[in-house]
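#onboarding

Welcome to the new folks! Below is a worked example of what a typical request in this channel looks like: someone posts a single protein sequence, and someone else replies with the predicted structure as tokens. Don't worry about understanding the tokens yet, we'll cover that in week two.

Example request:
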Amino acid sequence: MASPAGEAEGTFALPFTEQDLEILVLKITGSVSSTRRRVRRLESVEQRLLEDFGGQLFDAVFTGSVRTCLERSLTAAEDADAGLRLRLRVAAPLENIPWEFLYAREYGFLCLSPETPLVRYVAMPRSVPPFPVRPPLRILAMLSAPSDVPGLQNEEEWDKLQTSLSHLIARGMVQLDRLPVGSLAALQRPMRQQQYHVLHFVGHGLYDEDADDGALVLEDETGRARLVTGRDLGTMLRGYRSLRLVVLNACEGARSSVDDPFGGVAQALVRQGVPAVIAMQFEISDPAAVVFSQSFYEAVADLLPADVAVVEARKAIFAAENDVEWATPVIYLRSPDGTIFEEASDPPPAPPPPVDDPSEQRRRQFAEWNRAAALALEQDRWNDAIAALEQLTAAGDNDPDTARRLLYARDRKQQTEPATQPVIAEVRDRLLAKLIDLSLYLILILFLAPSADGGELDTDDWLRFGVLAATVAIYEIVLTALWGCTLGKYVLRLKVVRRRDRRPVGWTESLLRWFVQFLAWVACLVGAAVLYASLLWDKSELHQGWHDRVAGTLVVKLPPR
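Example response:
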């Protein structure tokens, strides 16, 4: 042990068997759901269990001269009005012990105090200087949900991440972007085009016992599962100096092998050059993950050391009546003082030119508008970017790049800021629209239906039937594909959109909707009645009928004209 109070050494004997540790982990993970459903008591069973475990672990580590060094170091830190960082370097067989539960009766849980942050320190030959940043902190989210691996819904996870960071995004402290797909290849272009500071992974993680290595479950080019080790991911991230932190919201992401201290995903990333990695040593619940993201990224955006930011996030989880999950996040650091970011200093301003030079004044004004536009575009503030670029254009800037950026900003504003979000159409409006359409069909039937003379149908009659069916099909398919509505829906301000992104439907969706309805009408009134009654059976409040489900569509109510 090396400390501000000197060096010491002692003999460590693990006070638990491997079976004891497995039982403890099962109790911890098994208690997560139950502890969230009840109000915290003065001292819960789980907290007493963890205090007992952490206390035995603390007493086994800090004995004799080692304990004396710790106490003297804490006293010295307190006298200097500073904290004492506990940098843990353990042998590979001890990596899987949840050291974050270290507990001393006189200090409490060490991990819950910013005065005693505990990190799993990875010593490397090269030092890691902090990277200069100015707001916003840029986070690239990577969500992986392979089609052949159940249990993760991409859109729901993305909504949770956006919700947890919404107040930081609104204040301009954080910029959150998302990879289009959760594949290894999808990382290249965004990382090349933008200086991202954080990679936030959400998905499945596992430990391959046969390969003795940790892995993340990413997507391949077909959307199916592909196991990617920490070494492989680290290879893709090397060379991007702005990337200072990787957060792995994946169960078993922090686990290591018995022989290789970098066998886990987190350790492998650190060895590949990532200054700080946060991984979950147990599966983390959704509420705890949301609280962690909110508090942690707020502290990082405030330029706190990474380990202190983790302490703040742990305290937030503990304050949310969660006795267990505050120790789930584990931080691995290469930085000795935990500082991975520092505030970027602006270059000294150039001496201003004489103010009586009109051409120089014009040049400086153009430069100011260009800087404002560039910053607004970088932070996705489309209105500010449009205002600055329009000022340039009005002042006579004929640079083609200015026109191109203005067109881009207007397009992005139109895509990201719809005027009014439509709401799901009520069942009664949909049925009334269908009655209007059926009235039109009735008029067609009166004109085109075969004559009822009691005899067999001749060629003319079959031709009439064909024309009638084709007219109805064209009416339903073409109008829906081109305008998203039939005449009945137009009257009631209804529109058919795709469920996944609320964008207009195309020919494929329109054809599928009509074909399912056609099959229902083939079964006469009973089939049609059952089809439209299926609108009432949808418990998700989306009012999707069977034809909507097959085509992947929704019917929404447009705002009044």
